[in-house]
Amino acid sequence: MPTAIAVTSADLVLPAPDRHTPGAAVLRPPGEADLEGALAETSALLELHGHLVAVVPPWLPPATVRRLHTVRAILETDRIAFLDIDLPPLGTAVLVRQLRQLTVCDFSPGVIASAARLLTHYIHAGALLGTVAKLDRVPVGLKAHARSWSPSAQFAVLAHPTPHLARLGPAGSKGSGPKGSGSKASGSKASGSKGSGPQGALPPGPGFATHLTFARGALSSDWVTAELAPAWQVQGVMENPLPADSAAWWATPKLVEFAAAIPDLSVLYQLVASVRREECRWCGLELIGDRCGFCAAPLAAPPPEAPARTGTHSRSRT
Fold first, then answer.
1. What does the alpha-carbon distance between residue 61 and residue 216 come to, in Å, rounded to a whole number?
2. 38-42, 65-69, 166-170, 273-277: segment of lowest average pLDDT
3. Beta bridge partners of 48
4. Which of 54, 141, 229, 266 is the most exposed, fewest CB within 10 Å of its CB?
5. What's the rounded Cα separation, in Å, for the pair 16 and 108?
6. How much is the pTM?
7. How do beta strands 52-55 and 25-26 pair?
8. Range 203-223 average pLDDT
9. Distance between CA atoms of 46 and 81, rounded to whole angstroms?
10. 52 to each of 80, 110, 161, 221, how far by Cα in Å?
11. Could you read off the pLDDT of 44-75 as tens digits, one per residue?
12. 188 CB neighbour count, 10 Å cutoff
């Protein structure tokens, strides 16, 4: 059986892009399962799949994170990887889907776990927001804060890979540029697109083929599909329900969250396979990049500390 991919919420499991992509296990939080039940579920996953890769975002409740580490400690196993990937909720769900796709390939569990950090570099995650008054995930200027009090205000925000904030017009289709937002668009194909206002109004898009996944909150707007998707030249658009943690992550329920990512398994495979594989010096698993996904050991051993100087000097005899 392929390596198991696990999440802590069912809304982070997006529909499979094809019939070959497996689902993901949902590790229930303390409020839904006691410790004995969590141990039984995790043990069953390990027995069936051999290894478990769980995506554990930093925005999870502390009690949930403690439960996961408690289960791994009690089981005394090195076959569970916890990936602390810091993406918005919908971007996290997209990454989970990519990891699920990779499990059907001939990659070892160590490579799959360490590939997560590589794949995050190719995910563009953001949201259309009705207010940025309480947003602390990206830099927000004073003018943007002040304009948030307007009932017709809308903001295009990119949280990853490069923070970007721009105020759009009342209808979300005519931008006013990022003036006062403290961010600047890079020279990508999304910058200065026709129908989106002055240069920089749209978040900078990916320079490679992607599909766009979006989810609607309490904000009525077609800006993502009518403006952003054509500007980013995405190859497909898919709507999914909004993850439960999205409103808290973006500090407002008035949003439309989006994430653009590579959809094609063959491209994902080539991307991961092109990276040199190493052996973890601590647990012995394969890895790519500079850190093991299972034991978190760095690829290279830290340099030895220089011996402390005593501050004394030898005296020559007279």
1. 23
2. 166-170
3. none
4. 266
5. 21
6. 0.84
7. unpaired
8. 95
9. 12
10. 5, 10, 27, 39
11. 999 999 999 999 999 999 999 999 999 999 99
12. 18
Q: Amino acid letter at 47?
A: E
Q: Which of 211, 224, 219, 221 is nearest to 247 (CA)?
A: 219
Residue 74 tokens, joined: 């009690």
Residue 167 and residue 174: Cα distance in Å, rounded?
9
**In the sheet that 25-26 helps form, which strands lie side by side, from edge to edge?**
25-26, 4-7, 52-55, 80-83
Q: Give 226's DSSP letter.
A: I
Contacts 24+ apart (CB under 8 A), 39-48: 39/71, 39/74, 39/75, 42/71, 42/72, 42/75, 42/80, 43/75, 45/4, 45/6, 46/4, 46/75, 46/77, 46/79, 46/80, 48/1, 48/4
Query: What's the confidence (pLDDT) of residue 197?
Result: 37
The DSSP letter of residue 307 is P
Question: DSSP E strands: which ranges in 11-153?
Answer: 25-26, 52-55, 80-83, 124-129
Taking alpha carbons only, the member of 107, 38, 234, 280 closest to residue 99 is 107
**Rounded (5°) CA angle 46-52-57:** 140
Quote helix, strand, coil % in the chain, to nearest 5.
Answer: 30, 20, 55
**Tell me, what's the pLDDT at 314?**
45
Query: What's the average model confidence in pLDDT over 210-221?
Result: 96
Q: Can you give the length of the chain in residues?
A: 318
